[in-house]
Amino acid sequence: MKKYVSFFRLRFLMGLQYRTAALAGIVTQFAWGGMEILVFKAFYEADASAFPMSFSATASYIWMQQAFLAFFAAWMLENEIFDSIVNGNIAYELCRPLNIYHMWFSRSIANRLSRAVLRCFPILIVAAFLPKPYGLCMPKSLPHFLLFVITLLLGLMVTVSFCMLVYSLTFFTISPQGLRMLFTTSVEFFAGAVIPLPFFPETLQKIMELLPFAAMQNVALRIYSGSMSNEAMLKAIFLQLFWLFTLTAFGKKLCNIAEKRITVQGG
Q: What's the CA gap between 4 and 140, in Å, rounded?
């Protein structure tokens, strides 16, 4: 366990060095979040009763989404891992007395966590001081906030487990580009990154909530914004745990199969 903790610590500290990139990301996320809120505001002004969430809850959903974008953005995959598989440098990883899946998982968690630490606090602070209903609202209660933190971390691990599945599948392809495009597009749509899941038709929403994508950002952001009932929260947390264990088990199995079949040519 110590060796994986070391990988986590080194990757986390390395990620904290990219402060200029984080500043650029903060500006971009402020602009994108503000644009999304203004677009939704136009729809709410047309007919606010047609939407399942209040405009204030929607604004909070968007600001929290932007603050913790690094947790849930499936497109933030590590090119270094893809390159090591494609160009054969994975051979060096196989020589180490380490489990590749566990090593990549720990460094992926650290990479996303370091990005979020640099970006989330400025976004949250500024959003909290914006005038209502455009700003970030406080959670309904302390239990809601604690559940938000728990589901936020679970969502992070589900996202990383899903990305690990993409890395493992890359062993069986010539180029990872097709996989990246397919999976990242699916996550963005089905996880509620483009449109929050409550805005979809009820039948489609129920189906989407059962998929692993909904276990990423959807649960934590909806708990914070107060758009989930107690029964729905318990069901969503159970699904988060289910998909975390399922994706992790499947990803580890696939990675083990790939390690046994891999052939590195050249020298």
A: 37
CB 160 within 8 A of CB 105: yes
Query: DSSP label at 191?
Result: T
Around 92, how many Cα atoms within 13 Å sit in the side-chain half-sphere?
7
Name the DSSP letter for residue 48. G
Q: Does the bond joining 139 to the residue before it have cis omega, within 30 degrees of 0?
A: no
pLDDT digits (tens, 9 = 90+) for 98-111: 888 999 999 899 99
Provide the CB-side half-sphere exposure for 12 (13 A, CA): 13
What are 28-44's pLDDT values in tens digits? Answer: 999 999 999 999 999 89
- The amino acid at residue 105 is F
pLDDT band, very low/low/confident/very high, at 209 (cuts 50, 70, 90):
very high
Instruction: Locate the domains of the chain by residue range.
Output: 2-261
Is 196 in contact with 222 (CB distance < 8 Å)? yes
CB 243 within 8 A of CB 158: yes
Alpha-carbon span 254 to 168, nearest angstrom? 6
Runs of H (alpha helix) within 79-210: 79-86, 90-95, 100-128, 142-170, 177-190, 202-210
Range picked from 49-53, 177-181, 233-237 for highest mean pLDDT? 233-237
